[in-house]
Amino acid sequence: MTVKTIKLQGKDYAQVKDRLHEFRTANPNGLIETAPTIQTDGQIIFKARILKDKADPTSTEATGHAIGKNEGSKAFEKLETIAVGRALALLGYASIGEIASSEEMEEYENYRKQKEEEVMFSAQEAIENCATLEELKEAWANLPAQAKTALEQKKNAIKAKLTK
Question: What class is the 6-100 domain?
């Protein structure tokens, strides 16, 4: 079955709202249950159980889970949506071969960008704090390749200053 998708980072993703629509259309007697469990450390685990036909307890079913902190706007609801989206994907309501929701992919992309920015900030700070050419050489050797590409001009400017 094909669910409406959106492009996200060059790939097709089925939003949970579209998965739900397709599920409800195909399974008017379906059942979706969700249950949160709040851990002592503040983490929330959401479990979603989906049954295609609640009149037939042996009908096809799937469960999905999501875990996270109840921090930020609508975090509780997002975790529930992710759990439902995973269960729907396991029932075949997703783009071909994809289990992750668009929300999860957006979160991952934001996390990846944040980590990349942190690496770049640390790399720039490392070369800017060098007092000698030897320190610059050592700092440069320890930088990741992506930082070296982005900071080549900065390194050359610092090197020029240190050689004066």
Answer: alpha beta
